[in-house]
């Protein structure tokens, strides 16, 4: 049956899921000015495709649909909205993201007014971001590149030194970048002051590489081959003293190092500048999930397979329970991720705009937590959604023109870029443990012991989970109180047990903290994931309340809210069903577990008739589906027409 959701609500949900006010103008511009050239990329020779995308990027930067560099701090929502609405080509999106979100953002956050004037005056002076080295990726504190102050010449000198320190994977560096923000160890008067960032001119205004800079292509990748990733070496490259991004530390002309900010905080502030890009990667994962599900669901509503013996009609594949069970939970998860991402961006904007230093530090921590979990969770979701969609489309899903295999190759790297997902979850758990330890330290000995001893029992009781252990009716299972409390309990419990394990190892057994943490790494990541799922569902819950509050009297919205509510329950219950923790820790018993399984199937059935309506709410430009299974206007037959009379035939010359 067709979706019962009224079309009147279309713009309302779309304005939450994709709130960028200029999206249609931007989408139209891309459709009119770039699309035809973008379509040529997959068939182009390797190097040509990189120069081609460089040309497209410059055309984009010349237009009036791109944000300015000032928007990065003044209207971050505009930059988010822009990045989320390009849709068309991964290599181009990543290039723009490196230029705006990494290169320019670093200068904005770590530099001074002079830096902004000198390096951000012209949008088409494309930038790169040079952090990763061949032997050092995640462990940024150990970068080997040195940037040494020469007191005689009054300049900094950059050296790669050992070949292991070559900068690696640097986006925009091979075909586009004039400048780069380079991260390395600042050495002043024989003292290593730790990691700092500098702007380095890689090429002059004519595109010629500066003396002492060497760049080489990193080679063919699993996808995004039109993105120009280069390896870079610096051989005694001199840069002016003023090129140190000196918001938190500076070197005077006579070579004296000065910083008001302690080492660890300074490092955190430098790395904090990465958060904007990290949120952008999460948005990228979400876009992939939306496109993939749109293709699979639209195809599933069209395609028939096997015949209904009663009616003699073909059965649409969406009407198979199994097809629904494979796709609808991913749609619910994508909605949950969208609402969460909405929240994460708000926290970020608050952080950027906060003037008070103490509050800003707290918001930086919050932003770090939120950006890290959203990036990890949503980039993984993108991959899962593409994989399932690909399979759900059968052989057609494997056809390149239908985009799913191409999307897979593009989305793959998002789980590694801007922080390896597992490491991000570990860093989140580390922050949570820090807060927990602080809370314990603030108590006296007796209070602390009682707190620890009663924590498990009181948590369960406090959250009403014990009382409802035998309850398995639909209303209870789908309720906020059950879902949110269960997820909250898991997060708290994992935190408490992890803290206890680490305490025993480090304090009682005198084990080195790094080793102890390593031995508990699986537990650490489980805590990160638990926190992530809890935060997502909380954001979803808040969004539902907001929608209800605003539209409670509108009968049309009531229907939509019911569907959103079902999706909330579906995703929440799936989180519970998929983790043995809840059975192992007696949050649910086997009877309740089976009831949840049945409830999930019921919710999937409820939501399925609305699935096309829900996809349309993402407000994606239809041109990205042209020529694919996701097209609204072309059938599978239209996409595979009978050959014309004058079309070349598949004749072969076997010489007989
Ligand atoms: C297409 C592409 C574009 C890129 N663009 C840029 C760019 O523009 N600028 C830039 O600076 N970088 C860029 N990068 C680099 C990217 O950010 C790094 O690849 C990423 O940070 C991971 O670093 P690494 O590859 O050195 O992996 P490593 O840090 O070596 O990690 C490898 C694996 O080891 C494991 N591991 C590592 N540490 C731990 C630990 N503590 N505990 C448990 N397991 C661990 C994890 O499984 C991890 O995935 C790009 C990479 C690619 C592929």
UniProtKB/TrEMBL annotation:
Gene3D superfamilies: Butyryl-CoA Dehydrogenase, subunit A, domain 2, Butyryl-CoA Dehydrogenase, subunit A, domain 3. It comes from the Eukaryota. It holds the Pfam family ACOX_C_alpha1. Residues 272-433 form the Acyl-CoA oxidase C-alpha1 domain. GO terms for cellular component: peroxisome. GO terms for molecular function: acyl-CoA oxidase activity; FAD binding; fatty acid binding. InterPro entries: ACOX_C_alpha1, Acyl-CoA_Oxase/DH_mid-dom_sf, Acyl-CoA_oxidase, Acyl-CoA_oxidase_C, AcylCo_DH-like_C, AcylCoA_DH/oxidase_NM_dom_sf. FAD binds at residues 132, 171. Its cofactor is FAD. One of its GO terms (biological process) is lipid homeostasis. Its EC number is 1.3.3.6. Residues 639-656 have a biased composition (Basic and acidic residues). Residues 632-656 are annotated as: Disordered. Keywords: FAD, Fatty acid metabolism, Flavoprotein, Lipid metabolism, Oxidoreductase, Peroxisome. Transmembrane segments: none annotated. Residues 483-631 form the Acyl-CoA oxidase C-terminal domain. It is found in: Peroxisome. Belongs to the acyl-CoA oxidase family. This is acyl-CoA oxidase. The lineage of its organism: Eukaryota, Discoba, Heterolobosea, Tetramitia, Eutetramitia.
């Amino acid at each position: 049956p067709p979706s019962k959701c009224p079309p009147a609500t279309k713009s309302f949900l779309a304005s939450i899921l994709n709130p960028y006010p200029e999206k249609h103008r931007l989408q139209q511009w891309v459709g009119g000015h770039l699309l035809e050239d973008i379509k040529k990329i997959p068939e182009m020779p390797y190097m040509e495709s990189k120069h081609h995308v460089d040309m497209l990027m410059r055309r984009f930067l010349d237009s009036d649909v791109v944000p300015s560099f000032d928007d990065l701090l003044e209207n971050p929502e505009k930059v988010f909205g822009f990045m989320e609405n390009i849709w068309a080509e991964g290599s181009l999106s990543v290039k723009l993201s490196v230029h705006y979100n990494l290169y320019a953002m670093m200068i904005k956050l770590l530099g001074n007014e002079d830096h902004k004037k000198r390096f951000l005056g012209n949008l088409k002076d494309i930038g790169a971001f040079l952090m990763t080295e061949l032997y050092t990726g995640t462990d940024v504190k150990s970068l080997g590149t040195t940037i040494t102050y020469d007191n005689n010449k009054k300049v900094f000198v950059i050296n790669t030194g050992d070949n292991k320190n070559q900068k690696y994977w640097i986006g925009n560096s091979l075909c586009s970048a004039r400048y780069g923000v380079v991260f390395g160890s600042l050495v002043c008067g024989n003292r290593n002051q730790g990691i700092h960032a500098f702007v380095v001119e890689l090429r002059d205004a004519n595109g010629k590489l500066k003396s002492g800079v060497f760049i080489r292509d990193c080679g063919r990748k699993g996808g995004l081959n039109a993105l120009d990733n280069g390896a870079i070496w610096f051989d005694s490259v001199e840069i002016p003293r003023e090129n140190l991004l000196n918001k938190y530390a500076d070197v005077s002309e006579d070579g004296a190092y000065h910083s008001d900010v302690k080492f660890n905080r300074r490092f955190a502030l430098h790395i904090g500048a990465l958060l904007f890009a990290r949120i952008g990667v999460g948005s990228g994962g979400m876009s992939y999930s939306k496109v993939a599900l749109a293709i699979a669901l639209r195809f599933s509503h069209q395609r028939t397979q096997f015949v209904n013996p009663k009616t003699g009609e073909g059965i649409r594949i969406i009407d198979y329970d199994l097809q629904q069970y494979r796709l609808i939970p991913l749609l619910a998860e994508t909605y949950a991720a969208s609402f969460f991402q909405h929240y994460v961006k708000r926290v970020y904007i608050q952080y950027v705009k906060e003037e008070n230093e103490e509050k800003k530090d707290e918001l930086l921590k919050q932003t770090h937590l939120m950006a890290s979990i959203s990036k990890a969770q949503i980039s993984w979701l993108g991959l899962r959604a593409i994989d399932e969609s690909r399979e759900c489309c059968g052989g057609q899903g494997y056809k390149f023109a239908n985009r799913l295999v191409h999307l897979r190759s593009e989305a793959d790297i998002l789980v590694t870029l801007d922080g390896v997902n597992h490491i991000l979850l570990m860093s989140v758990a580390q922050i949570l443990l820090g807060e927990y330890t602080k809370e314990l330290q603030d108590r006296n000995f007796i209070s602390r012991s009682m707190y620890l001893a009663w924590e498990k029992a009181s948590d369960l009781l406090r959250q009403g989970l014990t009382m409802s252990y035998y309850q398995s009716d639909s209303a209870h299972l789908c309720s906020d109180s059950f879902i949110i409390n269960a997820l909250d309990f898991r997060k708290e419990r994992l935190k408490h047990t992890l803290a206890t394990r680490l305490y025993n190892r480090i304090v009682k057994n005198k084990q080195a903290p790094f080793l102890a943490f390593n031995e508990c790494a699986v537990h650490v990541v489980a805590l990160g994931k638990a926190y992530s799922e809890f935060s997502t569902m909380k954001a979803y819950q808040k969004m539902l309340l907001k929608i209800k509050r605003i539209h409670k009297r509108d009968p049309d919205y009531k229907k939509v809210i019911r569907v959103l509510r079902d999706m909330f329950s579906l995703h929440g219950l799936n989180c519970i069903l998929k983790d043995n923790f809840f059975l192992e820790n007696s949050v649910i018993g086997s009877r309740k577990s089976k009831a949840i399984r049945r409830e999930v199937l019921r919710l999937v059935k409820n939501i399925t008739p609305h699935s096309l309506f829900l996809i349309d709410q993402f407000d994606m430009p239809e041109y990205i589906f042209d020529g694919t299974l996701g097209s609204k206007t072309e059938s599978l037959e239209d996409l595979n027409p009978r050959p014309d009379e004058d079309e070349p035939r598949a004749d072969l010359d076997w010489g007989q």
